[in-house]
């Protein structure tokens, strides 16, 4: 690894990941790097040994880290890759560590419309780009113009939207590259109307989702023409618990860590839900949440 004196960030060893994930579960990261900024991160990755496993964490939503933790290096972008600025009259540059809700407000304040839905995504732009996150009928890649990637050798690459295969909650074509930033293409509009739109979306979210509980966001993708929450509720699973993990009584597509759940509890509950829905409806629910790490 590159000599520590050349780096400005913080390198931690055996760092517990539960405090970095919105579900509040997860074993330790063998190593975690907290970069000072994008340039520091590029230097750090360039100095890693060839083949070093890399995992990226932002706000830790949409993520289930197993109790055995993660071998290799975790890059923590939360509060770090945070640059956001206007590129021209209708384009905004956003680094991967910026929370989606901040992007929505920033664009709205500038009188740019099209990014309001990001207010409903409880993660960072890096995570939203990776999975084409969406909310309230909007999807991340619908407003992406181009992206900046970094590969395992620390080489920074500019890529156009056309270089990726984008679908519902899916982005293919990453090939051992990770998102550093994106340029968003928006439209000029009315700032006050945009802010009211965001307010209405957040009120809807707070009414329908357990936003004040430790969850990962939506656990399952909606199957074509249906809703995962409807299917789970129809199976009578609201309030069903395994260990400390329970299906939310407010929204059935959320699993809450209600009583010191482990990743094993949550994963067992996910699989139980999938089995019940398949048995009752013949529909195989696909997870939206990303499961990583090793069993304890």
TrEMBL record:
Q: Which residues form the FAD-binding PCMH-type domain?
A: 25-189
Pathway annotation from the record: Cell wall biogenesis; peptidoglycan biosynthesis
Query: Could you tell me where this protein is found in the cell?
Result: Cytoplasm
Which co-factor is required?
FAD
Spell out the catalytic residues. Answer: 169, 218, 288
Listed under catalytic activity are:
UDP-N-acetyl-alpha-D-muramate + NADP(+) = UDP-N-acetyl-3-O-(1-carboxyvinyl)-alpha-D-glucosamine + NADPH + H(+)
Q: Which GO terms describe its molecular function?
A: UDP-N-acetylmuramate dehydrogenase activity
Broad EC category: oxidoreductase
Keyword NADP among UniProt keywords: yes
Keyword annotations from UniProtKB, A to Z: Cell cycle, Cell division, Cell shape, Cell wall biogenesis/degradation, Cytoplasm, FAD, Flavoprotein, NADP, Oxidoreductase, Peptidoglycan synthesis
Entry-linked Pfam families? FAD_binding_4, MurB_C
The entry's function note states: Cell wall formation.
Do you know which PANTHER family this protein is assigned to?
A: UDP-N-ACETYLENOLPYRUVOYLGLUCOSAMINE REDUCTASE
The UniProt entry's sequence similarity note says:
Belongs to the MurB family.
> Could you identify this protein by its name?
UDP-N-acetylenolpyruvoylglucosamine reductase
């Amino acid at each position: 690894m590159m000599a520590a004196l050349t780096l400005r960030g913080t390198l931690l060893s055996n760092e517990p990941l539960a405090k970095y994930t919105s579900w509040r579960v997860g074993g330790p990261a063998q190593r975690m790097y907290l970069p000072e900024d994008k340039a520091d991160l590029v230097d750090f990755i360039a100095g890693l040994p060839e083949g070093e496993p890399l995992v990226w964490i932002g706000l830790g939503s949409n993520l289930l880290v197993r109790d055995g933790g993660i071998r290799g290096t975790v890059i923590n972008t939360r509060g770090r890759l945070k640059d956001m600025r206007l590129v021209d009259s209708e384009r905004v540059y956003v680094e991967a560590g910026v929370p989606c809700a901040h992007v929505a407000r920033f664009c709205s304040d500038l009188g740019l419309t099209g990014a309001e839905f990001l207010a409903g995504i409880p993660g960072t732009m890096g995570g939203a780009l990776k999975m084409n996150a969406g909310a309230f009928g909007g999807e991340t890649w619908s407003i992406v113009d181009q992206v900046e990637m970094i590969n395992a050798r620390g080489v920074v690459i500019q890529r156009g939207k056309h270089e990726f295969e984008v679908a519902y909650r899916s982005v293919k074509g990453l090939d051992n590259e990770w998102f550093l930033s994106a340029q968003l293409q928006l439209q000029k509009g009315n700032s006050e109307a945009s802010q009211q739109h965001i307010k209405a979306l957040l009120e809807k979210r707070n009414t329908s989702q357990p936003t004040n509980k430790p969850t990962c966001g939506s656990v399952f993708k909606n199957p074509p023409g249906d809703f995962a929450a409807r299917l789970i509720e129809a199976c009578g699973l609201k309030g069903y618990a395994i260990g400390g993990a329970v299906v939310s009584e407010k929204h059935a597509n959320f699993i809450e860590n209600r009583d010191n759940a482990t990743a094993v509890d949550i994963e067992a509950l996910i699989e139980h839900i999938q089995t019940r829905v398949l048995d009752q409806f013949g529909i195989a629910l696909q997870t939206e949440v990303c499961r990583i790490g090793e069993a304890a």
